[in-house]
Write a structure and sequence with these properties.
Helix 2 packs across helix 3 (about 30-44). Helix content is about 80%, strand content about 0%. The N and C termini lie far apart (about 20 Å). The chain has helices at about 1-15, 20-30, 30-44. It has one domain.
């Protein structure tokens, strides 16, 4: 579910400080495009 992934992405960012879309995609087994959309949604 996207909401769960967004929260998990926020937690990942807190733990690592900075993450790339490629790192997020690998962590959550999504495409880089999906990870990029998630990061854009969090930055809006």
């Amino acid at each position: 579910m996207r909401a769960d992934r967004l929260v998990a992405t926020l937690l990942l960012m807190q733990a690592r400080g900075r993450v790339t879309a490629k790192e997020v995609a690998a962590e959550f087994e999504t495409s880089v495009a999906t990870a990029r959309r998630d990061l854009e949604a969090l930055s809006a």
